[in-house]
Amino acid sequence: MQFASYGYIAHNQLVVKAGGNLKEILLRFIVLLCGVLASAGVCNATQLNVWHMVKEMDADLAHTAAAFSRANPDINVVVHALPNEELKASAIRAADQQMAPDIIIISSDNVGYAGLMRLSELPPEWVGDTLPDAVQQALQFNQKNYSLPLFSGNHLLMLYNKALVNTPATDWQQLVVQQQEFNQQGIQTLALNYQEPYWFALFASLFGADLVTNNQVSLGSAEMAKALQFYQQLAEQNITQKQCGYACVADDFYQRKYAYAINGTWALAEAKRHLGDDLGIMPFPTLQQHKMQPLASYIVMVFPNQALSSAKAAQIKQFVHFIRQAENLQPLAKKYYLTPYYHTPTPEPWLTEPFHLQVQAQNRLSTLMPASTAMVSVWNGMQKGMLLHQKNTLDATAAASFMQKVALRDQQLLEAGQ
Amino acid sequence: MKIAKLSLKNLLILQFVLSATLPTLLLSGLLISEFQNIQTEEQIKKQSAQTEKAKLQLEFELEKFALQLQQLAVDSNAALAASSGIFAHNARNSLLQIAQNHQLAKAVLLVDKTQWIVEAVPVEAMVVPLTPLQPHLEALFAEDYAATNQTIFMSSVELSKQLLANSAPAAQPLAEIIVMQIPLKLADTAVTDPRSRLTGAIVALLPLQNIKTMLENYSPDTTLQNIYWQGRGLITDAKPSSDMMVTQVELHVPNLPLALTVEFATTRAAALGAITALTYRYALITGLFLILLLLAGWLFVRAEVKPITALNRMVEGYADGDLQQPKQQFPFTEFDQIAGVLHTMALKLKEHQDLLERRVAQRTSQLQQAVVELNQINAELLKTQQQLVESEKLSQIGILVAGVSREISDPISQSLAAVNTIQQQHLEIAQAVKHSTLKRSAFDHYLRESKLSIEQLSRNLQRAEELIQSFKAVAVDQSSEQRRNFNLYDYLQQVILSLRYELSRYNVKVDIKGDKVMVLQSYPGTFSRVLTNLVLNTLQHGFDSSVAQHISISYSLLPDGQLQLVYRDDGAGMAKPVLKRIFEPFFTTAQQDGGSGLGMSIVYNLITQQLKGSIDAESEPGKGASFTMTLPVRVVIKPR
Question: In CATH terms, are A9-154+297-360 and A156-295+371-417 the same topology?
Fold first, then answer.
């Protein structure tokens, strides 16, 4: 499962893109085919197209959709998973070409693209009365509600293998000491999706570097430069490796090649399946009492190309109502260690399980990403700046400035195009 | 001229080896030369084919690359990325895909209309300076929707250096860059028209250094010598050589109006490597073959030369006199025949030898007898000669003694007369005293007469004394050959004085000319004997007593320190036959007058042997004779 807004995609960009394109083509082919068949009277059910970025949850969502279609034979729901970046670009392009899907399940920070995706504003009955400020900022764009939350708790976690780690490190210095022991055992220390800015953002928080301030990108700070240097040192000290990607934080960690791993909540189910009771969740190590704060988001449903005003609005609402029922959300939440989001509080007895409690404890330490043009604009610049610093093309200060320069331009372009 | 002696054995081995190898070597040399020519032609063909293939391969890569860039430009993600950061990720993936498929470009950029680098692969290219590209991009963007793909050939040291920063270092990297610019357009239709919107461009930077490297990889067997753009060589450190085979190909780059000319070269040494290796292998095999031939030749020749050696030993035996050795048998008929002939010859030679030995023994006996007789005759001759020499010596001594007697008799006689007179007067005075008849006048007469007698006596005795001293000196020098100092002038005067008697029988005037002070250290007796013999020879053979004659003796020191003594007379002279034989012993023209024929021979011997000098005689009948003697002397007192 992948809930991060940006972080997941880059580890296998080419494969994912190729797969995404193929699926998109197939999807369009099915839509076209159904249109032809409908005109012939063979296929006369209304089809709802659902794109989502939660690859790990694809089968479960398809299962839910199938259940809905069985209950509503006149509505055929087609669920299709797309990598996050591909999903965003395709959704914007499709909205522009009047070929957008009806529903998109995406992380809440991407609501910052509301204008480009031509998102439908939610009807009042779907919107909660009172929301905390942080949640409001995460779900609303320009004080308007475009996203319907399904789950909360989408953020990074510090995982470790209990079979390899006796005492989890509480600060980075301990981790450096432990690294020598791991090396002697032929074990790598920390699996980190090194070149992904979503992971790097965690280390930016360690030095107090804000990515966004007052809906303006703020990447060019001295704290950001320090974070870059610290990040570089991790690789230089071989605590982690520059080439370590998503396969590293997932497969290699599961194969016990790494003692620690930083990965998202979406990967917990898979990790648990591989490591069983050896899987441990721990607080992020501190650095001179400074804590790391992962960036968190909601998993939300959005409705591109003004779908809620389209001819299929009723069917869309039917499906939304169906999926938001506790009997449908709860199994998914439980399986993927997420917290379901309802209008009304619902008792969740399983949330008392220790593993869930640990996840929720981490969740409380995370920072919700606002749904803003600034927030969605930081990632491109951050990644370019990181890579240029990692390649020693720019020093840390210049790299941070470069990040800011690119992100600012992206934000300006985005706002100009909203 | 000395001729170096050759060994037949070595000559035969040489002949054997040369006969076997020389044709092979000549033929092989010819073939290798032909191979080299063929290989050169083949290499040129191969190089042309390879370079053509390399060129086509690279052109294909360039075409493919350009095509993929065009395809990317058609992808709306790229066009959108130029206007929005949302699509940057997709565009980057596309760029990465192209970059992974092609190594030609060192950087592929996605640039928007403000010349902002939206995406770049590799990521380091995000910060490359676009200043050198600025005019080209401006020109492209100025065309807006009508812009077409462009390829530009430009030079920028800074940009090239930055692009090649992560490449393998080259000695002098090329500064030229091929820039492919593909415009990015957004259009609702497939047709580009004024409704289309130009959003930016894909810019691919292909350093010429990179293209050079690829061409070199595609043509591994040849060397890329230079790349020419509009006739200008871009590789400045290229080293052309006359010993190279050069081929040129035209490299066409998509959308570049002019082609690049690429020059490949291969050194002849590299091209002929195979032939050279073959030659070395051949040389090795030939060397081994030659060794085998030498061994075989040595064995053959040894077998052939062995009977010659035996024959040689046999002939040496004959040469050493072993003519009776038994006849040997040889494996070859020819040698057997020669041995038979030699054996027969040896037997015959033995017979002749025996006969000859007998004759020689007989002749030797006769010769020995003759030698004994000859020795006897010779001894007698020597004895006779000695007697004659002694006789001559006695004769000369006799002459000397006679001269002495003659010279001394007069003063002695006068002295005796004076003594007689004194005695007579003494008796008269004594009688007068005894008888007391002495008168004063008688006594005074006695005193006057005795005084005169005493004076006469004294004068004559002194005269005799002088004569005796003179003869004594000459006689002593003649009889003893002691080296001593003497005044030459005085000594010559004394010798002439000793001959005064002989000279007195002729009307002769003797002149001695020379330095009167000079004292020599030599053998004065020898000088005396020489001069005496010359004077006697002149008197006996050259002078007529009725005619006034003249003898001239002169001497002087030559520049080399030798003494030249010239004796000259104006006598009858000699004819040439006489002159030629004048120094021969016993040669005389006055045998009937008692001449011994030894005088001039003695002179010659004294001059040449005793005084270590030389003597020359000159004479013509009627013109007197002249003897010039050149003598090495030690001068004690130098002449004035």
Answer: yes
ipTM: 0.81
Q: Please give, rounded to a whole number of angstroms, the shortest distance from the CA of B87 to a CA of chain A.
A: 6
| Minimal-distance CA residue of chain A relative to B79 | A93
Record the tokens describing residue A51, joined without a space. Answer: 């794109």
CB atoms within 10 A of CB A357: 12
For chain B, list residues whose CB is within 8 angstroms of any CB belonging to chain A.
76-77, 80, 83-90, 92-93, 96-97, 116, 122-124, 126-127
| Own/partner pairs, A208-216, CB within 8 angstroms, 24+ separation | A208/A290, A211/A295, A211/A375, A211/A378, A211/A382, A212/A370, A212/A372, A212/A374, A212/A375, A212/A378, A215/A370, A215/A372, A215/A373, A215/A374, A216/A374, A216/A411
Longest dimension (CA), chain A: 71
Helix, strand and coil content of chain B, in percent to the nearest 5, comes to 60, 15, 25
Identify the CATH class of A9-154+297-360: alpha beta
Q: Which position has the token pair 């860059």?
A: B177
Chain A residue numbers with beta carbons less than 8 Å from the beta carbon of B86 are 88-89, 92, 113, 116, 410, 414
d(CA B56, CA B52): 6
The mean predicted confidence, pLDDT, of chain A is: 86
* Local confidence pLDDT in tens for the 418 residues of chain A: 333 333 333 333 323 333 344 444 554 555 455 444 444 444 568 999 999 998 889 999 999 999 999 999 999 999 999 988 889 888 888 887 778 999 999 999 999 999 989 999 999 888 876 677 778 888 889 889 999 999 988 899 999 999 999 999 999 999 999 999 999 999 999 999 999 999 999 999 999 999 999 889 999 999 999 999 999 999 999 999 999 998 999 999 999 999 999 999 988 989 999 999 999 999 999 999 899 999 999 999 999 999 999 999 999 999 999 998 888 988 898 888 888 887 655 556 667 778 888 888 888 889 999 999 999 999 999 999 999 999 999 999 999 999 999 999 999 988 887 6
Distance from CA of B118 to the nearest CA of A (A): 8
Instruction: Judge: B123–A406 Cβ closer than 8 Å, yes or no.
Output: no
**Every domain of chain A and the residues it spans:** 9-154+297-360, 156-295+371-417
**Contacts of residue A123, Cβ cutoff 8 Å, sequence gap at least 6:** A308
Domain spanning A156-295+371-417: CATH superfamily: Periplasmic binding protein-like II (3.40.190.10)
Residues ≥6 apart with Cβ < 8 Å to A275: A161, A254, A256
Residue of B nearest to A393 (CA): B124
Residue contact B86–A402, C-beta within 8 A: no
Instruction: For residue B553, list its beta bridge partners.
Output: B512, B567
Residues of B in contact with A85 (CB under 8 A): 89-90
Maximal C-alpha separation, chain B? 213
- Burial label, B242 (beta-carbon count in 10 A; 0-12, 13-18, 19+): exposed
Question: CB–CB of B89 and A85 under 8 A?
Answer: yes
Residues 6+ apart with CB under 8 A from B498: B400, B403, B470, B471, B474, B528, B532
pLDDT of B223 above 90: no
Residue A326: what residue type?
A
DSSP secondary structure, A168-231, as one string: --SBHHHHHHHHHHHHHTT-EEEE--TT-HHHHHHHHHHTT--SEETTEE---SHHHHHHHHHH
Helix (H) or strand (E) holding B515: none
User: What is the C-alpha radius of gyration for chain B, rounded to an integer number of angstroms?
Assistant: 66
> Which pLDDT tens digit goes with each residue over A332-373?
988 888 888 876 555 566 677 788 888 888 888 899 999 999
Per DSSP, the three-state class of B169 is: coil
Number of neighbours of residue A226 by Cβ within 10 angstroms:
19
